Structures are given as C-alpha cells and as structure tokens.
TrEMBL record, chain A:
Organism from which the protein derives: Myxococcus landrumensis
Record bears the keyword Metal-binding: no
Main location: membrane
Subcellular location: Membrane
Protein name: Cation:proton antiporter
Automatic annotation (TrEMBL), chain B:
Organism of origin: Myxococcus landrumensis
Tree of life domain: Bacteria
Name under which the protein is recorded: Sodium:proton exchanger
Organism phylogeny: Bacteria, Pseudomonadati, Myxococcota, Myxococcia, Myxococcales
Keyword annotations from UniProtKB, A to Z: Membrane, Transmembrane, Transmembrane helix
Keyword Transmembrane: yes
Segments passing through the bilayer: 37-57, 94-119, 125-151, 163-188, 194-216, 223-242, 248-266, 278-294
Keyword rRNA-binding: no
Length: 432, 407
C-alpha cells in the first residue's frame, strides 16, 4: 500500500514536470499517447491504493483520472483525453463480450422472466420519479423554463429515460475484480444488461416524441426502423462476429487475446459507423459463442480477463479524466437532487418488486444498480447532438449526475456483492 | 475509422506474410521483404496519400499518436540492448571497426549529397547539412539479420555471424548520434535551442527509465509488469511527442537507463516488450510508407546516388573494419557485402526527422531513405552470397527463410 502510494506520487511528479516543461514550447504536439500512458500507469497504481483503503480498484482508476485530468490538476490536456474515445469504445466492446459469455441459455430460462419483470418495474418507478422531479424543477432548470408544457413533458421524458440507465461496464468490472459467482451476481448482471436494452428502446421512442413536439413530425416508420436496426442489426452483426471468432478459435488457435482486441476494436468502430450499438453487438457475439460452444466461451472469458487489466485501468481512468467537475458546480443542486431521488426510486422498486425466493435481492440488489457510465454518456451525447437547442444543457446535467454515480456506484456494487456472500477472492491476479 | 483501416490492413498483411502464398522458393525477394517487414512499407506507400489515397494526409495526422508510440517503443528496445556489462567487455578495435564501416558509408553519402540537396531545395546551409547528414546517418546503419539467419541455418560460421551482428548493432549508435545532430541543426531556429531540445528528450528518457526501474522493482505479477512496461513506453513516447522532442532518443535514453539501473527487472521488461515488438514495428513501417510522396522526382533522382554511394561506402568500410578488428573479432571475408541490408532503425530515424522538422526537405529525405531501404534489402540477398563460404549445413536449408526477423 505504502509502495503503491509512493509510486503513484512519483508518477504524478513526473507528469507535473512534463506539464511544466510544455510551457517552454510555444505549441505542443499530440497529447493522446501521453494521456494513454499516464492514465494507464496512474490508474494501475491508484487501483492498488484504493484496494488498500478497502475500495474497489475501479474507484481508484476513476479518482486518479479526475485528479490528473484537465478539470482538476490539468496534467493531461483535454485533447489527449478526448483522443482516447477509441480506447473507450474498445473497452466497452470487450466488457460486453465478457458479459455476453455469462448469458447462458440455462440462466436465461432460469431467471429471464423474473429479471425482465423486475427490470421493467425498476425502470418504470425510476422513470416516473425522475420524470416527476424534472417536471417539478421546470421553473428552475434553464433549458425547461422557456418550453411549452408539451415540449417540457417530452424533454423531461427524454432526460428521465437517460437517467434511468445502468452501467453494465462497472458491474462487470467489479464482478471480475472480486471474482464473484452465484445466483445474486447472475441476477444483477442480467438485470443491468436487460435494463440497458430497455433504455435503448425507450430512448428511441422518447427522442421521436421530443422531435415531434418541436415540430419535426412523428415519423413512426422511421422510429421503428431505427430502433429495429439498432437492436436486430446489432444482434445480426454480433452473430456474424461470433461465427468469425469461432472459426478463428477452432482454426488458428493462437494469439487469441490479440485477435479479440482487434475484433472488439472493429466491432466498436464499425458498430458506431453503422449506427448499431457496439455494446449489443459484442453482447450478442459473446452470448452466441457461449451457447454454441461453452468451452470456447470460457476461453474468451479467460483471454479477456488476462488482457483486462490495462483495458479497464485505462478505460476508467480516462472516464474519470473526462468528468467535467465544473458541470457539477453549475448544475450541482439539481443533479444531486435527481441522484438522491433516482437512488431512492431504485431502492424502493427493489424492496417492493424483487422476487421473494432470495431475500438478498430485496436487501442488496439496489446497490448494484446505482452506477452509470458508458451507455449514459453515449445517450447524453446523443441528446446534445440531436437537439442542439436544449441538448447541451441536458448533457451537462446528466454528466453531473454520472460524476456522482461514478464515484459512489462502484463502492456500492462491491458492497452488494460482498454482502451477498458471493465474492470468492479479493485479488484475482491480472484482473481489473 | 482510419485506425480501423490501418488495423485491418496490418491484420491482412500479417496473414499474407505468414501464408504459404509467399513461398521463399517461388518468390525469394518477396519473402525476404515480408520477413524483414518491408512488405508493409511498400503496402503503406501504395495505400498512402500519394498513390491510392486510402489514407489521406489528414488521416496520417490523426495517426501521429500511433507513430509516437512506435518510435518510443523502438527507442526503448534499442536502449535495452545497450547492455553496459557487454559494452564494457568489448575491446577498442571492435568499436573502431564499427565506426569505420558506418563512418565510411556516412561520409560517402553525406558529402556528395549535400550539394544537390542544397541546390534543389534552397534551404539554409545548416538545414541542408542536417538533411544530408541524416541521409548519411541512415546510410551508416546496417541490419545483421542475414548474418543471423545464415549462422542459424549453418551456412556461416557462428563466430563470424555474431561478429557481423555485433558490428551492425554498434553502428546503431552512429545513426542515433547523427539524428541528434541533425535535429540540433534543423528542429529549432538556432543550434543552441536544438541542443536544448535534444537534451530535454534525453532527460525525459532518463527520468522515465529510472521511474520504470522503480515501478517494476519487486513486481511479480506478469500482467502488472506488462501493463507498467507498456504504460511507461507510451508515456515516454507520448511525452516526447507532446513536447515535440524526439520520441526515439527519449526511448533510447529510457531503455539505456533501465538497462543500467534495472537489475533483474530488465530481462522481464525486455520479454514483455518482445511480445509487442513485431506488431509495433509492422505498424510503424506501414505508417512510414504512407508518408512517402512518390511524385517528388528530385527524390527519385537522389535514390541511385544514395544506394550506390552507400554500397561503395559499406564495401570499403567493411575492408577497413576487417583490418581494424583482425585478431579481435572474427569477420567473414568481404564483410562489406554482409552489411548491405539497412534495417528498420533507418526508417525510424527519417520518420522522426520528418515528425520534428516539417517541410519538403525532411519529406525528401524520407522518400530517399524509404526507397533506398527497399532497394538495399533486395540487393542484400545477392550481396550476402558473396560473403558465404561453402559449409556443411547443420539445419535443413528450408529453415533459412522461415525465420521471422523484426528489423
């Protein structure tokens, strides 16, 4: 622990020297590689420090990213962090691929219906609470004040849909870190994954309604085809990827981690270009592989686990560096109110609707649903791009909420897994 | 998307390079280019902005972080090879011999080519001298992979093969020193400022190397060790690119510092880097190839001069080296012919030069060296046969061309 702190401090001193040396140059060169190296190293040692404090490593990655990033100490320039979007896409794809390998047909048959029902209940309650709160805040939220009531209703619905979303990336990273296994863990992972699928569909509908309320017309056919393409197209492309992976794994049998990284990279980039969901593409690929050939699914799981440490450390440290602390200051009170209400809604829904056969679900499941990360970021950015009149302000509010959720979510997820008694080990070598 | 394209191109080429389609007995030159990685260089030239245009100049600008990472990695690997104990053990005549063959080639190329560079480009005198000296620096480098392959296959005596390899390893220092001088002359408005930038790169590398030694000290988990190594390589290359100083020199300083103070860690770090060496090198040469501007006729006009003068310099320098190292280092007869292959460091030097010295002259230097390196690689095979003395093969002859080499 002491050694990790010393190493982290030395790294930060080196970064400080580099950022001071930059002042000597009139114009700087590219900062993306610097950001990648610095965040990877700082993330790794901050993860060790966090573990020493009894926190998830992921929290360490995030916090150090915030600290050295452009919005706090400023050792890493904003352009560098922005340039790491490619890495972020890769990490989401890898994480989704691992998550997919957890979705065995037996599990879906066993808990699928119960998870879907609970997911619908949690999403509905959370949506209702956030929707009501947002509407109630209309007089104080600058982007809602000038809108007519139908417009305000549509925008509130759109924003609340985004706010409902969970974070499969955080959940899977914590599950990997703690090597948790069991029915509670399976239930939690299935719930966050299905929850995000629901949110994606709901988001497309809410965006269509919002567009209509602003005079863009309600194009049902376009809406359905868009949603259909994103969902079914992603599953089909995921299926193709799964076949490619199986062919490679059975035929070539070497350099699997490198191949998986390359394919995930292609899924992330290609999926985005084709307006598919990279998360869903990789999820479908992983699920198909594990259900077609369980042994190969296990191989993928272990290969990604081996390559997971740098990917997770870099991904979450970069996510931390991208958190706009100034946004937290400007829309802080409203964001914090929504954070609290969302948390209460999730807690209430879990207590009220969770299956009774396992008392742990009622007690601890809500803690695993607080995190927000990649999907929420993506949807917030989409709102900003699609609705330039009010979207950027909605994005600021949501990013402020994500900041709060990123800081408390991983801790709560780990606590939920620990309390459920399914954490097998505290230190799996080479994992996140 | 550009990165995706590069990745897919590299993946396709990797498959091609390892496929039976490139049978050494059917296409010896192509197989040799594939083994040395220069096939990727040609593929980069074809896909680059000046031929097919699959990657635009803007795309290449976006891929600069990848280039910085590649140069940093190459630098650290070079620096790690500077084994202090081994270097101390080498007798002076070995250094003198290495300096003789590389210095002769350097002078043979630098002096005659400085005039056409000055006349055709109209740069300032020190910029032309810098560019010409970099051409000479690239010419001074040799790759020992033919010798290594030959002694592994039993076609050359092991001691002689190692002697050639040792000479080619030592001439890397000449190339790096020339790069430092060329950057001093051309990368800043004044030579003093240029010297400051070179010193900054070296200082950055030393700091990173010392820190890497400390970070990896007593680290037992291989995944963590690999992560820290890759992170530090990215940091040193990235910091150099950010400060617009040489990533290659910073990397070399980092690797050399680690080799000096790293103790037992050095071997494990080298092993971790060894796993990414070939993919990084292939991506790097591909990107260097993309930077070639094929429509610069003045550069094409310089290529025969560059290749011919270098050839003469190596042959003559080889003779001098043989005389100087006689009795100390066993070298094959006509050793100059074994030094024709140029290797990857020459490409790194010109890529770094173009990275830090923008303008037509740096691009012309890159064009000449890239085309020259491919020609030299093709010439190297027949030239090397002049060196070989008939011996009984110890291994199957087919193994000769099956061995993959990175540089």
């Amino acid at each position: 622990m002491k050694g990790a702190v010393t190493r982290l401090l030395l790294l930060m001193v080196l970064l400080a020297i580099i950022s001071r040396a930059q002042v000597l140059r009139a114009d700087s060169g590219t900062s993306v590689t610097l950001a990648a190296g610095a965040l990877l190293l700082c993330g790794l040692f901050a993860g060790k420090v966090a573990k020493g404090f009894g926190l998830p490593r992921l929290t360490g990655y995030l916090l150090v990213g915030v600290a050295v990033g452009p919005y706090a100490l400023g050792f890493i320039p904003g352009e560098g962090v922005k340039g790491l979007d490619l890495v972020k896409g890769l990490a989401v794809s890898l994480i989704a691929l691992v998550a997919g390998t957890e979705l065995r047909l037996g599990l879906i048959r066993r808990v699928g219906a119960r998870v879907a029902l609970l997911c619908a209940a949690v999403c509905a309650v959370t949506f209702a609470v956030c929707f009501g709160a947002t509407l109630a805040l209309k007089p104080v939220l600058p982007f809602l004040t000038p809108l007519t009531m139908p417009q305000a209703l549509a925008v509130s619905a759109l924003m609340s849909t985004v706010v409902v979303s969970f974070s499969p990336t955080v959940t899977i990273a914590i599950v990997q870190e703690t090597s948790a296994r069991g029915s509670f863990t399976e239930f939690l992972m299935a719930l966050v994954i299905i929850g995000d699928l629901l949110v994606m569909v709901a988001f497309a509908l809410a965006a269509g309604m919002t567009r209509a309320s602003f005079g863009g017309g309600f194009d049902i056919a376009g809406l359905l085809s868009g949603v259909g393409w994103e969902l079914f197209g992603s599953v089909v492309v995921g299926g193709v990827l799964a076949v490619a992976m199986l062919v490679y794994m059975r035929g070539v049998k070497r350099e699997l981690p490198l191949f998986l990284v390359g394919l995930s990279f292609a899924a992330a980039e290609g999926g985005t270009r084709l307006h598919l969901s990279p998360l869903l593409v990789s999820l479908a690929a992983g699920a198909l592989i594990v259900n077609l050939d369980e042994r190969e699914g296990e191989r993928i799981h272990h290969a990604i686990q081996r390559a997971g440490l740098p990917v997770f450390a870099l991904f979450f440290a970069a996510a931390g560096a991208g958190l706009k602390l100034d946004a937290l200051m400007t829309v802080g009170p409203a964001a914090l109110l929504l954070v609290v209400l969302r948390g209460l809604a999730i807690w209430f829904a879990c207590r009220r609707f969770a299956p009774t056969h396992d008392p742990r679900l009622k007690e601890y499941l809500w803690m695993g649903l607080i995190s927000q990360a990649g999907v929420t970021f993506g949807l917030a950015a989409l709102v900003s791009r699609t609705f330039p009149t009010f979207g950027p302000q909605v994005e600021v509010l949501i990013v402020a909420m994500i900041t709060a959720h990123e800081l408390v979510g991983p801790v709560l997820t780990r606590r939920a897994l620990t309390a459920s008694g399914e954490v097998r080990t505290d230190e799996a070598p080479g994992t996140a | 998307m550009q990165a995706l394209l590069v990745f897919l191109a590299i993946a396709a080429l990797s498959l091609l390079a390892s496929s039976p389609a490139l049978d050494p007995s059917r296409f010896p030159s192509l197989a040799r280019l594939a083994a040395s990685g220069f096939l990727f260089l040609l593929f980069g030239v074809v896909l680059g902005p000046s031929v097919v245009g699959a990657l635009s100049v803007e795309d290449l600008g976006h891929l600069r972080p990848v280039m910085a990472l590649g140069l940093g990695t190459a630098g650290v690997i070079l620096g790690l090879n500077l084994e202090p104990r081994l270097l101390r053990l080498l007798p002076r005549p070995v250094y003198a011999a290495a300096l003789a063959h590389s210095g002769t080639a350097f002078l043979f190329v630098t002096v005659p080519l400085a005039a056409p560079l000055l006349l055709t480009s109209h740069p300032s005198l020190h910029a032309a001298v810098g560019a010409a000296s970099l051409l000479g620096g690239a010419a001074s480098l040799s790759s020992g992979h033919f010798a290594v392959l030959a002694y592994r296959a039993g076609r050359m005596d092991r001691a002689r093969g190692l002697g050639v390899a040792l000479l080619t390893m030592l001439d890397d220092a000449v190339g790096l020193a020339v790069l430092a001088v060329a950057l001093m002359l051309s990368a800043a408005p004044s030579a003093g400022e240029g010297l400051g930038l070179v010193c900054l790169a070296v200082l950055l590398g030393i700091l990173c190397g010392a820190l890497l030694a400390f970070l990896t000290h007593a680290m037992n988990d291989p995944a963590e060790l690999a992560t820290v190594t890759l992170g530090m390589v990215a940091l040193v290359g990235g910091a150099a690119a950010y400060l617009r100083v040489s990533a290659l020199l910073a990397g070399v300083a980092c690797g050399a510092t680690l080799a000096l103070v790293g103790g037992r860690t050095v071997e494990r770090v080298a092993r971790a880097l060894g796993r990414v060496e070939r993919p990084v090198f292939l991506v790097l040469v591909f990107l260097v190839g993309c930077g070639v501007y094929t429509r610069d006729w003045a550069a094409w006009a310089l290529v025969p001069g560059f290749v011919g003068l270098r050839f003469l310099g190596k042959v003559l320098g080889g003779r001098i080296a043989q005389r100087m190292a006689s009795g100390v280092l066993e070298l094959p007869p006509r050793v100059g012919y074994a030094l024709i292959a140029q290797g990857g460091l020459a490409l790194c030097l010109v890529a770094e030069y173009q990275f830090l010295v923008p303008g037509g002259l740096a691009r012309r230097v890159l064009d000449v060296v890239v085309v020259g390196a491919v020609v030299n690689e093709l010439l190297a095979g027949p030239a090397f046969r002049q060196v070989l003395t008939p011996m009984k093969p110890r291994l199957a002859p087919a193994a000769v061309d099956d061995v993959e080499v990175a540089t």
